[in-house]
Amino acid sequence: MSIPLLLLPGLLCDARLWQGCLPRGTTPRIADLTRDDTVAAMARRALEDVAGEPRFAVAGLSMGGYVALEVWRQAGPRISHLALLDTSARADTPEQTQRRLDLIALSGRGAFKGVTPRLLPLLLHPSRLDTPLATEVMEMAERVGVEGFLRQQRAIMSRPDFRAELPGIGIPTLIACGAEDALTPPALHDEMAELIPGARRLSFEGCGHLPTMEAPGQVRAALEEWLSPSRSA
Hints:
The chain is built from 8 helices and 6 strands. It is of the alpha/beta class. It has a single domain (3-92, 156-231), classed as Alpha/Beta hydrolase fold, catalytic domain (Rossmann fold, 3-Layer(aba) Sandwich). Helix 2 (39-48) packs across helix 3 and helix 4 (94-108) crosses helix 5 (132-157).
């Protein structure tokens, strides 16, 4: 029996983020998170992709993790498994919000350039900065485009802090990140794993913020283990 799996991309990411690590035994649906400017609206639209499914699994990376938590908030009884990758349960800090506002202002002046080589060290492990994968990451950002980027940044800035709700998650939960993630450091994942009962905590060695593209085989194996019958709710 195939497991319906809702996959949620991160900021400036599209379906390419997940394509190399799709777990066997699933029916994946990759949500479009470029069309709404609040996390709640993103979650509602993503749920349309699984409207006919009484139960489904959810995995989100980075911004997709924020949306995954909101999907759980909106449709908790229907969710069988939850995976949070390279993300955080915290709201934006004032400093993070100001950086986003500065980027929005630059984009409004026609200076949107997606992910530039200058930003790649925040996303990829140093060993992958001069590889074709870096080009793929930049091309992915360009596909999302400036309007999608602006909507995503507004959604991220206004997201709630989910930490108080994490102890109420009672389904098999995977908390994982690149061991050298510079954007959402491992400590943020340790925090979530401590708050969610029975959560499994993994790190992907030699990876930065995008392990689904950097080490897809490792991520696929982790997702398949997370979805295995022995860990079903």
